[in-house]
Amino acid sequence: MIGSWWTGIPATEATLSCGDQTHRLVWNAGELTAPDHPDPEGERALAVLGGEPIPCITMLDTWHRHIDDPQILLLSSRGPADLIATQEEMPQPQGRPSRLPRGGRAGRPGAGSVRMIASSVGPSRATAPASESGGEQDLARLLSLGGAVGRRLETTVAAHWQARLLDPDDETRRLRARLHAAVYGRLLTTLSGWLDERDLVLELELLPPGERGSITRDASGAIQAALPFDWLVAVWGRGLETIWGRFCLAASSDDGREWRLETVDPGLREPQTVTVALPT
Amino acid sequence: MAPFDPELYLRLLGERELIRRGSDRGNAPNGELIEAARALVEVGAIERAIASEVIDGYDLAAGLRAARGLWRRNRPGALAQRRASAAAAAAPERRMVICDVRLERPNEEIRIRTVTLSEAETRFAVKVRQFDPPNSSASRVRPSQPALNYTVIDDRGARCGTRFSGMGSEREWHGRLTTDSPLAVDTAWIEFDGTRFELEDVPGTSTITIEPVPQGDPALGYLWFWLTSVQRHFHQSGATPVIDALVAAGSVDAEDPQLELIRELAENGGAWRHGGRQAGGPQAGLGDAPPEWRSLLAPRQQRAATGSISLIAVTPPFDGFTVALNEISTDNDAWTLEFDVSPGIMHGPFGHSLDDRRLAWWAVDDLGQHYLGELNGSAGGPDQTTGTLQFRPAIDRRAKRLTVLPTGRHERARIEFPLAWGEM
């Protein structure tokens, strides 16, 4: 099996206004970077001294604060039909726009990076809600950045909790309802769109990690699904929830290029494996 | 079958509500989630702190999806309301005086029934009749609501203006005049638009006691209480999340016959308020309903009293509330009651937070007829609500005494007084 949760998840980038320029935030292999800011630590210190936040650095810091925050799974989008308000619609940050160092766009790749170690264990920020309005606004901007950055963040968080579920502690058990709801909401959105059923009734059993999922329809027409939390990382995080008109229960790969997808058709008949591969 | 997990139940409800509203980028609160959470908290199925955490999370999620959602969520007023909701507000000290002053002007007659003075404001309960000036044109366009801005002065020489809130028709209005700034609470007199009148403190005629609310089945008791907060323009989905949550928690039997009646009353949009079973009333049997509901839903045939009564009635605290009543007026097939309550109450079908406070406004006369009041115009905030309640059915003219019962979840006030009707 593949070693890193992000294997097979394509790199992505989003743009944002930073001062009077348009800058990029780049996600690749579990890492978010601001390549237009070659010295983020120095700029962060300058921003503190000058009292002028630098949007790219603020986004990196916001990302870092929330990489294991289960609240992200509640707040982020459940899919294309569930839109987070755009940056333009969001309240503007306090303070003047920041001035950027000249030549800021010429930063080297990898500069200003925040490393994500999804399975890290230690003091968790999981219980710190984004309750302050400034924090909420920064988080809102991050989740609405576009370029799938929001989904990358939620997948990062999901990967953290997927690892914690393998050896659950008190905090993991306390958060079980949140994790269950995170799968439920995304599954409900996916199935409603896939089956074109607006008022779809869904019952979800959250299986232990690694167990084989299933999906059926009962006599009342309700969908009975059983999935492990892993589905959020392995399937949802890779954008594989539906493929070729089929719903994907699980995804696995040995090399990160060829993927075996366990899928069902809209009749929810016996699962069949679909194999997809990137060209070498 | 897995045991009921109340937090998971609420979170899945929150997911469904969030997704259902996906394309609606307005800022409606997570009403069903909040109502279900309130119900589960009330019957002890979930800790308030956990329910609050769930609600707050989905409130933020909804805010992130609304164009101005975060702004609305974090605007100063909303923050203040959330803070105030978290702690019970202290009721302001009041001085209430019946004055019954009539001021006649060429183009209007102002009748001042009572004055309420507190450190925060001074308020006059008034009725205003307006006339066309003798030489005015018949086609003159009248304002939709009178300005009613008068100058008032107290015995210290403090001077301020007034603003009106209330209701009425083209020529007749009744409601409150509130001063721009408070007059001295202990002022001996007030000069109102050039006319001075004395304020004489006399004891009220009402008897006030506080008593516990009779406790029956917690879930059914909550549902009946919840029903009293249903507004007139109410849609049917409101009852479903509340009942479903209590059934899922095992707090009430899904087959309980009272549920059918409660659901029916909730789903007909409050039409039952306007005439019991004869006009949109419930079809389910009333036999299982609490006695006050049976009385309300099957009112006696009677001839309605007419008139008004000025009151001085301020309760001690009960269930965290303090209530003041200051005037009853008959109104065709109903009657109205002017009131103040501290802290403020919320009376919509869906609350904005778990901490929104509610009161059921019951009344009963000495002939045994029960009445239920609903808000018919109010103002205020988290600290205080002031407004008018409308009760149905009309009061029987044979009734000699009335008891108003502002009812919280655990305690209620009994405010009893004689029905000595005066001129409207």
List the helices and strands and how they pair.
The complex is a heterodimer of chains A (280) and B (424).
Chain A: E1 12-18, E2 21-28, E3 31-33, H1 40-50, H2 55-65, H3 71-75, E4 113-115, H4 133-143, H5 149-165, H6 170-174, H7 176-195, E5 202-207, E6 214-217, E7 223-228, H8 231-234, E8 242-243, E9 246-253, E10 258-264, E11 272-277
Chain B: H1 6-20, H2 31-42, H3 48-65, H4 69-74, H5 76-86, E1 94-104, E2 108-118, E3 122-130, E4 152-154, E5 159-160, E6 162-168, E7 172-179, E8 189-192, E9 195-198, E10 207-212, H6 218-228, H7 239-248, H8 257-267, H9 291-297, E11 308-314, E12 322-331, E13 334-342, E14 360-365, E15 370-380, E16 385-392, E17 401-407, E18 411-418
Antiparallel strand pairs in B: 1-2, 2-3, 3-7, 4-5, 4-8, 6-7, 8-9, 10-18, 11-12, 12-13, 13-16, 14-15, 14-17, 15-16, 17-18
Helix pairs in contact in B: 1-2, 1-3, 2-3, 2-7, 6-8
Keywords:
heterodimer, A: 280 residues, alpha+beta, 4-stranded antiparallel β-sheet, 8 helices, B: 424 residues, 9-stranded antiparallel β-sheet, 5-stranded antiparallel β-sheet, 24% helix
Quick structural gist:
The complex is a heterodimer of chains A (280) and B (424). Chain A contains 8 helices and 11 strands. With 280 residues, chain A is of the alpha+beta class.
Structural class of chain B: alpha+beta
Number of strands of chain A: 11
Task: Provide the succession of SSEs of chain A.
Answer: EEEHHHEHHHHEEEHEEEE
Number of discrete helical segments of chain B = 9
Radius of gyration of chain A: 20 Å
Q: In total, how many beta strands of chain B?
A: 18
What overall form of chain A do the CA principal axes indicate? elongated
Describe the largest sheet of chain A. 4 strands, antiparallel
Oligomeric form? heterodimer
Terminus-to-terminus distance of chain B: 63 Å
Residue windows where pLDDT falls under 50 for at least 5 positions of chain A? 93-131
- How far is it from the N-terminal to the C-terminal residue of chain A, by CA? 18 Å
- Spatially, the strands of the biggest sheet of chain B line up as 10-18-17-14-15-16-13-12-11
**What's the pLDDT, averaged over the residues of chain B?**
82
Question: Helix proportion of residues of chain A, in percent?
Answer: 25-40%
Low-confidence stretches of chain B: 82-89, 138-143, 232-236
Any idea what the radius of gyration of chain B is? Answer: 23 Å
